[in-house]
Design goal:
The complex is a heterodimer. Chain A is mainly alpha-helical. In chain A, 65% of the residues lie in helices and 6% in strands. Among the domains of chain A are: 6-166, P-loop containing nucleotide triphosphate hydrolases (Rossmann fold, 3-Layer(aba) Sandwich), CATH 3.40.50; 179-251, no CATH class; 298-489, no CATH class. Classes of the chains: A mainly alpha, B mainly alpha. At the A-B interface, β2, α6, α14, α22 and α31 of A face α1 and β1 of B.
Chain lengths: 739, 61
């Protein structure tokens, strides 16, 4: 067997199981979810089968090859530009008729095809029996039944794909009849295209002819670019045909084409390919569950109850492990304090690394429980129902049903990330609806904001943690929708487009799947804390440390210490010196001296922090930020949050570790904040609101620029969000303080 | 003194690391294909010696 690498592509309808199969074959861990639209770009992976190296590409899910959406364009462009040796078309066996619509277009394109008949177990449960051999015979391409989730049948699938990949045959398109009238036109267009070699390097002539009849948005400009004369000739013919069909039958050619494709599929299925053991109108279990869970009245109530239960579960189960983590980092700090002599390295390790990054890592157990809960909702298929129910609300605010999934991916339930959320907006066809979604998804509570929320809610509203988390989640949605409405009524005015969403069946999540999903996300959080957050914490520590105090001030503090010490008797001074070495019990007078010395130390730390680069910036901003209740330390943390939101915790941890606030080494950051006179529950809400809505992190801003195709929108997002967040915080602080 | 030298070294390494991260993000913004190519190079992965493969993404079946 030829051992040179074979290129394969995985294509199929959304939620047909492409990414599941891709992960199973390559061992990769691309995100898989029980809802459509997970893959919006193609991903490449490598594996070998019986010593045959294979390069495989996971293409986005698509219903057709007509350029209506980005996924369809990505898929078609990949096939024409890369010409993979074989395309594995994954079809959902329980939904064969609709899935074969895309298959017919692959056949018309002539791509070397192998059909993976996925989810045969689900089909069987529904009483659907699919005869793979018969389907193979009728379509003329290999058909292999598989269960991508368990890997059943994948060996045979790859074996067949390798055989097809090694065959040296040219791409052989099939001809589907589109009725007497259109067939004549297609033959005519086909001959013009073939004779003039028009786009024949990329597509078969007949395929191009059909795409012209379908008014394909990508094919028409491509044709103009290739040969404007021929393109004009083809367009004229198509316009004449379209006008004629509209006048005589009140129908567009694309509708006739779709009807005939379905006719072709029906004809195949009726030849004994599919048999239904049960009545086809029978309600499947999923439909029965949906009668309750997506009910107009009951559905939203259940949705809110599930959300609240998720937070309740997260907070109650993680309380003990979070406390243990806090104690561990407290212990680690005291160990480093004992082992290392005074100096910048010790300060960096304790204040920058342990109090900074430790604060972020301390929330790992809580994050893990939250991700587990979200994985249950996702894997079961409930998240798709949330999107379905939210569609009606989204329309009121000028967004599209397809906007819901980017919101959820960005942290709509908490714990997502705005970067894939911004990328997921590619599924939106209307540029204005897409832009409105793109600019509002960063308002969701992503995984980086969650620990900050948890820290402040835990510190200031410890009796009702789940309730406050629930309310702040609803607030994020409300603000995102109101801002979207504002954008859609002003700079992004435009018509709404229709929305159709496929609801995947409910599936019982497997424990292995839940654990893998939970661990993947938790590991991402730990990795980020150990790399980027650690690096930024060290830099911020440096900014909070240098330049140190001028010599005169240092001398002044030293003099104060001497003066205070000398005001006590020699015996007390000796007692203090000995206690430094032996940690013995101190007399009342010695305790008083120690307290006064500690106060001077804290005053010196505070003066040093204020004099540092970060301190000066924080103080510079204080006249404005104080309107919202933020002191200079909070300003430093919020500035750090532009890099990544978790940095807010690490920076506060460092600032409160270095500053003059009364610090007990074993205190958690939350306890330190509660004791700080500059903080109270009103300030906490004001800070929380600012953190939730101010500029997205650096990576998200770049992603917005990339997806919007312009830095203008990225800068708009930074400026608008920060301005809006500040106004909201000022309002909350001023009204809250007044009340 | 040794603590100061060590801290300066760590800060320099951290600055280089963050600089590289920022560079990579801008590379990705200008050319999304970088995502599946080499580590951080705006010129892409066409240079000799660049495997263009992620070794963690490979498995025998």
């Amino acid at each position: 067997m030829n051992n040179s690498s074979i290129t394969m592509a995985l294509a199929g309808n959304p939620n047909a199981g492409k990414t599941t199969l891709f992960n199973r074959l390559t061992g990769a861990r691309q995100h898989v979810g029980n809802y459509p639209g997970i893959t919006v770009d193609h991903k490449e992976g490598y594996f070998s089968h019986n010593e045959q190296d294979i390069t495989i590409t996971d293409l986005p899910g698509t219903y057709s090859l007509t350029a209506y959406s980005v996924e369809e364009i990505v898929t078609r462009d990949f096939l024409t530009a890369n010409k993979p040796k074989v395309v594995i078309n994954i079809v959902d066996a329980s939904n064969l008729e609709r899935n074969l619509y895309l298959t017919t277009q692959f056949l018309e394109m002539g791509v070397p095809l192998v059909i993976a008949l996925n989810m045969i177990d689900v089909a069987k449960d529904r009483g659907i029996e699919v005869r793979a051999r018969k389907l193979e015979e009728l379509l003329g391409v290999p058909v292999v039944p598989i269960i991508a989730r368990t890997g059943e049948g994948t060996d045979e699938l790859i074996r067949q794909a390798i055989i097809v990949g090694h065959s040296e045959e040219k791409w052989q398109p099939i001809d589907i009849s589109y009725g007497e009238d259109l067939d004549k036109i297609i033959i005519h267009l086909d001959s013009i295209i073939a004779e003039s070699d028009f786009l024949t390097n990329s597509y078969p002539a007949r395929f191009t002819a059909i795409k012209y009849l379908e008014h394909d948005d990508q094919m028409l400009p491509l044709g103009q670019k290739e040969d404007s004369g021929i393109a004009r000739q083809l367009e004229q013919i198509v316009t004449t045909v379209s006008d004629h069909l509209l006048k005589t039958m009140d129908v567009y050619p694309e509708a006739i084409i779709a009807d005939h494709r379905y006719g072709f599929i029906k004809a195949i299925l009726r030849q004994g390919v599919v048999t239904h053991k049960f009545d086809t109108d029978r309600l499947y279990t999923s439909d029965k569950i949906d009668k309750v869970l997506t009910n107009r009245l009951l559905g939203p109530v259940v949705m809110l109850a599930i959300l609240f239960t998720l937070y309740q579960f997260t907070f109650s189960w993680s309380e003990l492990p979070v406390a243990l983590m806090g104690s561990f980092f407290g212990w680690l700090g005291s160990v480093v304090d004992t082992l290392l002599p005074e100096g910048p390295l010790k300060s960096m390790l304790i204040s920058g690394v342990i109090d900074g990054v430790g604060g972020v890592l301390g929330f790992v157990p809580l994050i893990m429980f939250m991700f587990f809960g979200i994985a249950v909702l996702e894997d079961s298929g409930y998240l798709a129902r949330v999107a379905f129910m939210m569609d009606r609300i989204f329309r009121i605010f000028g967004l599209h049903g397809s906007s819901v999934m980017p919101f959820i991916v960005s942290g709509g339930i908490a714990g997502g990330c705005a970067v894939p959320g911004v990328m997921a907006t590619r599924t939106l066809r209307s540029p204005k609806e897409r832009m409105a979604t793109l600019l509002t998804v960063p308002f969701m509570n992503c995984g980086a904001k969650v620990p900050v929320l948890i820290l402040l809610i835990g510190a200031f509203f410890s009796d009702h943690k789940a309730l406050y988390m629930f309310l702040f989640t609803l607030l994020a949605w409300l603000v995102a929708l109101v801002v979207a409405k504002l954008l859609r009524s002003t700079v992004l005015k435009g018509e709404a487009t229709p929305f159709v969403m496929e609801l995947p069946p409910y599936r019982f999540p497997t424990l292995q799947g839940l654990l893998i999903h939970t661990w993947e996300r938790t590991w991402q959080y730990i990795k980020k804390a150990g790399t980027v957050i650690l690096a930024i914490s060290i830099l911020l520590w440096a900014l909070m440390t240098y330049p140190g105090l001028p010599q005169e001030e240092l001398d002044s503090f030293a003099e104060k210490r001497i003066a205070v010490t000398e005001s006590f008797s020699e015996t007390i001074q000796l007692e203090i010196r000995e206690s430094d070495n032996h940690n013995g019990d101190l007399s009342e007078s010695a305790l008083a001296l120690q307290e006064r010395l500690t106060t001077i130390d804290q005053e010196q730390s505070g003066a040093r922090l204020r004099n540092s680069t970060a301190g000066r910036i924080g103080i510079f901003l204080e006249p404005v930020s104080s309107l919202a209740g933020f002191d200079w330390r909070t300003n430093i943390a919020l500035l750090g949050g532009f890099a990544a939101k978790e940095v807010i915790i690490s920076t506060l941890g460092t600032a409160y570790s270095m500053g003059e606030v009364d610090v007990d080494a074993s205190d958690s950051l939350g306890q330190r904040l509660v004791r700080d006179p500059n903080w109270n529950s009103v300030v906490a809400i004001s800070v929380l609101i600012f953190i939730m809505f101010y500029a997205p992190c650096f990576v998200t801003v770049i992603c917005i620029a990339k997806e919007a195709g312009s830095w203008k929108w990225a800068f708009f997002s930074m400026a608008f969000n920060t301005f809006f967040a500040f106004l909201a915080s000022v309002a909350v602080f001023q009204i809250g303080s007044f009340v | 003194m040794w603590q100061t030298i060590l801290v300066i070294t760590i800060i320099v390494v951290v600055l280089l690391y963050i600089g590289k991260k920022i560079c990579r993000q801008f590379c990705l913004a200008t050319d999304p294909s970088q995502e599946i190519t080499c580590d951080c190079s705006c010129s892409g992965c066409n240079e000799a010696g660049c495997s263009n493969k992620n070794p963690n993404n490979k498995k025998d079946i």
